[in-house]
Amino acid sequence: AAAAGLWSEVNRCGQNGDFARALKSVNKILQINKDDVTALQCKVVCLIQNGNFKEALGVINTHTKLLTSDVIAFEKAYCEYRLNRIESALKTIQSASEQTDKLKELYGQVLYRLERYDDCLAAYRDLIRNSQDEYEEERKTNLSAVVAAQSTWEKVVPEDLGLREATYELCYNSACALIGQGKLNEAMKKLQKAEELCRQSLSEDSDVTEEDIEAELAIIHGQMAYIMQLQGRTEDALQLYNQIIKLKPTDVGLLAVIANNIITINKDQNVFDSKKKVKLTNAEGVEHKLSKKQLQAIEFNKALLAMYTNQADQCRKLSASLQSQSPEHLLPVLIQAAQLCREKQHAKAVGLLQDFADQHPANAAEIKLTMAQLKIAQGSVTKACMILRSIEELQHKPGMVSALVTMYSHEEDIDSAIEVFTQAIQWYQQYQARTNHGCCVFQPKSPVHLSLIREAANFKLKHGRKKEAISDLEELWKQNPKDVHTLAQLISAYSLVDPEKAKVLSKHLPSSDTMSLKVDVDALENSHGATYVRKKAGKLTGDNQQKEQRQGEVKKKKKKKKGKLPKNYDPKVTPDPERWLPMRERSYYRGRKKGKKKDQVGKGTQGSTTTGSSELDASRTASSPPTSPRPGSGAAVSATSNVIPPRHQKPAGAPATKKKQQQKKKKGAKGGW
């Protein structure tokens, strides 16, 4: 009776959604009968509903004999999935004896988290095909998310699923798929539509606030900002990113991606802001919210930021960790080489790149290009050329041939430059022989092959290698006998080597009549940019003819004006050849002579004047007052004396200067003490 009452309590609480009270009743039932399978199942469900996934899984693992995989496979797999034990969840699902609809739904989610998108796509298609319930819209949304992930991470061209984009989730996923294809403008329109649909659907609910709507729109705005960043509108993207961060969204994955994108915009600038943003990428649970490629990109940017902030040890540690996770990835070793270059250890950086190229031949081309760049930066152009020529898959490419020829020309190594041309031409000849299987006696050259031959001929002619250029020009003329330009070059080259041969070849030149070009001379002269315009000949009247004749006579009479000569010019004296130079720069300049002015004021010791010493001798005067006052006397100097002591004398012209100085001081004076 007690158990029956408890079961009715459990049933009532379950229907009301009060799983905490239901759990208490279930525990009381288990105290009565600890091996009650139904009670154990109810306990697991109550724990899951309350979010206690770890405890629920503990109950399942403790009672394995009672709670077999057939009985509780879904609950166990779901707990493992929520605890981010994805591989374990997959094993649990696959080991179940019966694949129920619930297990199939969970199986699709598990495959998505494991990034097995092809299998996931097949699972959701099967679910949509064989299910008819109220969750069809959610399944279609998940299906579109898988297609978007394939387009973004695996660069697979998405197929048209024929889904009606009636919800903002479907519009958003469609936009993500378009971003993966590089169709940014179309993706932006889809995101704007998704934003509009989101506002409409959420505004219908009276309980939803504007803040809730903005929080839901954060992921859409984040994707909009990413498109702006890809389009080069970094300022707009940065502004939108910061607006999202200010909202403080609860999605740690969204915050981590936005912080990472801001760091990529900052690059080596504003590193203080980047260091603050890095903290958002280290939040708990981020690794379970993002894909492997997203997490890898964040780690790469952390290593680069450590390099930019001169944290060499941290940079090496992060790049080494990345290399151990992805041994064949280029970026970790490139970051390590860049760090060594910052430390002026270029030889060590080149050695590191060489070791990686030897271990991973598939990625050797990109690494060797970096090695060549480092050699050029060091000034070792010849060594850089040797490295570039060792890249077999690129050495015949026109771009590589052009780069090598330019570098060898810079080093004045013409023979090596010609050798590069020769090897590339031979490669194309061999390639053409392989493709044609030797079936035809005359094999027309490919456009790239002919272009290389022509460039080689022009290069040889430019550097005086006439004999070597002749064979290339003959090959070109053989391919196209109507090419007058090539024939002219060939005749020009032979004229310096074999004039007789040049005469014979000149017979092949077309006659002047056949070479006449259909050019409208008048139209050409009157065209925009013509340097000479011929005046149209018109009939001149008698008066006009006379005027023109007079103007012609006036023009003939005009003579060139003679240049003006200086006033002190003497035709007999040879002009100074250094007259155009400033006086101080002339060879005979000896500086300004300083005249000895006896009457100059301020010469000598302090207080001396221009007055003779005899005039200042007080002993020679009739009434000579004492030089200093006696004790008790009232005045320092007698009023009757005509002699002014030296300190009281004023030189001639001094008073006026002093007044001027005082006036200047008054004008420029500012506030007192």
From TrEMBL:
Disordered: annotated span: 530-673
Alphabetized UniProt keyword annotations: Coiled coil, Cytoplasm, Endoplasmic reticulum, Repeat, Ribonucleoprotein, Signal recognition particle, TPR repeat
Keyword Ribonucleoprotein: yes
Entry protein name: Signal recognition particle subunit SRP72
Family: Belongs to the SRP72 family.
Gene Ontology terms for molecular function: 7S RNA binding; ribosome binding
Xref: Gene3D superfamilies: Tetratricopeptide repeat domain
Transmembrane residue ranges: none
Coiled-coil residue windows: 86-141
Gene label: Srp72
Organism: Rhadina sibilatrix
Main location: cytoplasm
Annotated TPR repeat ranges: 218-251
Residue ranges with Basic and acidic residues bias: 545-554, 567-588
